[in-house]
Amino acid sequence: MNPCVFIIFSLLLPRFETTTANQLAAVQGEGGGRRRDDNGVMKKCLDKEKHALLHFKALLQDPSGHLSTWRAEEKDCCKWRGVSCNMKTGHVTELELNNFGLVGEINHSLFNLSRLNLLDLSFNSFHGTIPSSIGSLTRLRYLYVRDNDLNGTIPKSIGSLIELRNLDLANNSFYGTIPREFGNLTNLQWLSLQNVGRCRVENPEWLSNLSHLEQLDMNGISLAKSNHWVDAILSLPKLYSLSLQGCELSQVMHPYSLFSNSSSSIEFLYLGNNNLVSSMSHWLFPLTSNSLVILDLSSNMLDGIPKYLGNLCSLELLELSNNSAVVEFRVFLNNLSGCTSQALQELHASHSQFTGPLSDDIQTMKNLVYIDINSCKLGPHFPKWIQTLKNLSYLDISNNRISDTIPLDFWDMWPSQLRYLNLSSNNISGKVPDLSSNFVNGSVIDLSSNNFYGPITNVSSTVALLNLSRNKFCGGISLLCQVVHGFLVFLDLSHNFLSGQLPDCLWHFNELIVLNLEHNNLFGRLPTSVGSLIKLEALDLYKNNFSEELPLSLSNCTSLNSLNLGVNNFSGSLPLWIGESFPRLYVLILSSNNFSGTIPLQLCQLAGLQILDLSMNHLHGSIPSCLDNFTSMVQEGFLPTQNVHSYSIPWFYLGGDVYDELDDEYIDHAIIDWQGDKREFIRNLGLLKSIDLSSNNLTGQIPSEVTNLYGLLSLNLSKNSLHGEIPEKIGQMKQLESLDLSRNKLSGEIPSSMSSMNFLNHLDMSYNSLSGRIPSSTQLQSFEPSRYNGNAGLCGPPLTKKCPGDEVSKVPMVIDESADDGEDVDEIHGWFYIGLGMGFATGFWIACGVLLVNHHGRHAFFHFYDSFRDWVYVNVVSFFANMKRVKHT
Questions:
Q1: Do residues 561 and 644 make contact, with C-beta atoms less than 8 angstroms apart?
Q2: Between 20 and 30 A from 13 (CA), which of 19, 47, 51, 113?
């Protein structure tokens, strides 16, 4: 869990409170509905303000149609979506357009809404500048324009909005200085300048005017050259949340103490990503404030924790993740042994360079609810002290080089309490007796990439994520029928020794997004209940023994974008509904099965398809000419990757006081025939564009439309019965890196257009009936002659067979007819060598004379000679070592 969520929650809280009335009004009708005056007469919005809104809309793109209710024929704009009005006057008072997907500029007409007190344009694609006329909205209290593409300088006129309570300019592309006119905003309670672009703070005394400021976020703004920012911040009496992440604090010239004042009321402090080292802590600490609840020192270079940090008796969350320096774990715990260890509920220290064993001293932190110390190299023994932390609900000790077994009573330590357990990527062995009794609703269990073995006997019925992949589990998977409460989002049992049939009890998995059962020994027919997985995005059954036809119910899984059923025994015709029911599909792998029949034309409806693998089946007929309907393969370059499946799991932290979601992701991966070898693509799978129809019984010609797939990287049509000529325009597939047309019945010449295929580094045209000269190019002559074998009519390099007309005519040697001519040549050669020798001797003795006479010159020369000799030696040795390495690879 990222602690930054606390920033978001704490910063948004005031906004939620102030918009409650508007949200309640929205329940009655979009935009708050109509308003009535004191006499019960309905008030409509003013014509002037209605026209201003229509003009604002006219200059915007609204691809999602959120402004479809904004119509001129609708007389009352108070009924429009996102618009709220005053009940008595009809003036527009609130405009909430956040996350509407709007594109365009902020038009001046918007500022005719003179009574506006809330303007929210955040999470859109507004570009251009904020008009300076925004200063005319003098009644504005809440202004949110975060997460847009706004640029230019921040207008000084914002300083005229003296009624502002909340101002959020975060995540835009402004430049210049933060206007000192912000000091006029004396009613401001929340100011977010997070990542506002290339902005800087100069003369930040204006900050000290914001006496009501409670929350300040200046993440990403350089404070290194600001002289008095510390004084300004310390003068804010009501400030309780301060975020200075990525502010170059390590370059601050003056050793101020942020907490020299014991009356400081800071509760949330975020100082991550500032290159801080422990030696700087004398000016960040000692923290004498007893109000501090959250302290974030992540992504720094701390090599220790000051002892007085242990005296923060209110500290509940300590974030130390991603600190690059090495620290002794026992020393780290000793420095937290004060009252901090009693109050601390969450410890985040992942990806930090701890050394030494996990210390038993951590049991002094008896109130720990959340502990994340993944990727800290804390093995090899399993930390038995974990069993002393009776209040744990979140435990992540993954990727810690633990090579040990788990005590059997470990699984019974937290009855009905654990929400998150991650032991993955270690070398833990042993049996897993029970995964059912310790976990609460929506729990996460990740034991992947270990050496657990034996059957899986019990699973929590309320599990949301279950990852047991890459272990040695065996037996059946009827345990899935225990998961009956519909929380399951992610199930990965791949790379085990599981056997038996897939049980027909998937009806409850209507929230499942990822199902991966690849590399097991499962067999039988897919159950019809698979059709209940209506949210499924990735289905991977690769390398099992599933058989029979695909059930029609699978067509209900319309959210699928990755379907990998390769290396099984599925049979029957390729279903027509694959092309009709899966509009989002980008991966379709059905290789190494027993499918028969023809390739259905309906597959061409999969416009987003990037990977099509139907190889090693029993397909016949011709290749559909509509393959150029695969729009993603036609477009050159890389599209946004689609192989990342994001999912969220409900989560409560800090004792359950705050609701959040655990966000995670699953990366599609697949084994693809790439350049003649089987290769597993993982994170780069979404960048691959490939068609493999090899090892079937396909006939007919290669359709010329295939050459329109300009973005294709790999095309394999080998081991079929294709005939006719290679399409002449194949050379326009300039992105192709791998082309295999071998073992067909192709005839004619190799098209000359292939000379322009500059990225081609794998080519196989062997065993066809091709003839003529191999076109000349850097690429085509670089392949082994065996790539052209079995084509008796081919000639020219790299083959030794010469083409007609290529016989080299021998030029007769010209013999001088007179001896005098020969003597002249010999005389010229003789004088050349005499001159060369005399020149060398003269230069040599001149150089030696200078070196003998000039002491400094002699010293410099021999120093240069020694250095040059060493340079030559190192580079020659390195060259031959590299050659040997390349030869072995």
A1: no
A2: 113
